[in-house]
Design a protein that fits this description.
Helices cover about 50% and strands about 0% of the residues. It is mainly alpha-helical and about 200 residues long. A two-stranded antiparallel sheet has the order 1-2. The protein starts with a helix and ends in a 14-residue tail after the last helix. α1 runs parallel beside α4 and α5 packs parallel to α6.
């Protein structure tokens, strides 16, 4: 879907900051909890989220080395490590010439580069869903303004659902045949999560 870069910047910053607000509620005991991302505990999910922020920030700065996407250790203060990654990526998305830049995203493709609009779209929908992941893991509510949900739903509907989602390292699992009472439930179902996690197991 097409969206003005400045609008995308605002939406992306909203979901990214929401993810930080939720992460700030994590206690050391929470880090071993399972998450809707079945391959990860909360510690693993948080490390992935921080790493992706650094990867996208490096891409915004013109870097293409896959090393920027290598899993980041959380260290002795996981929340502060995550906060630093949020600050880095939000600052990387600020420059006025961002729309003119090409993003190398080697975790997505090593053969093509992406527009800033595409890159911010990927980041936006990823952290909309990861905010839900963290909230579900912690048993906390998460709410977004309708404009965020409207954009998230359009992005989620535009992402192909096929065999590519079962490949190792796929960003999202196959869509789940379930919806809930909110647009956020529909978004996460389209992107491979059960809205009622952990009560219902998503289909393979």
């Amino acid at each position: 879907m097409r969206m003005p870069i400045d609008e995308l910047r605002i939406l992306d910053a909203t979901v990214t900051r929401t993810s930080l607000d939720l992460v700030a509620e994590i206690t050391p005991a929470d880090l071993t909890k399972p998450t809707p991302c079945s391959a990860w505990t909360l510690h693993g999910l948080l490390a992935h989220m921080a790493t992706q922020h650094h990867g996208f920030a490096a891409a915004a700065d013109g870097e293409s080395d896959l090393g920027h996407w290598r899993l980041l250790p959380l260290g002795d203060d996981p929340i502060e490590t995550y906060r630093a990654s949020v600050n880095r990526v939000l600052n990387a998305f600020v420059p006025h010439d961002l729309a003119d830049r090409k993003f190398a995203l080697p975790e997505f493709s090593t053969e093509v580069t992406f527009t800033a609009e595409q890159a911010l779209g990927f980041h936006f929908v990823d952290y909309l869903v990861h905010s839900w992941d963290v909230a579900k893991t912690l048993g906390l509510p998460v709410k977004f303004e309708q404009e965020v949900l409207d954009a998230g739903l359009k992005f989620a509907e535009s992402i192909p659902d096929g065999r590519n989602r079962t490949a190792p390292g796929a960003a999202f699992g196959p869509a789940v045949d379930a919806t809930g009472p909110s647009d956020l439930d529909t978004i996460v179902a389209l992107l491979g999560r059960s809205p009622s996690w952990p009560d219902v197991t998503p289909r393979a």
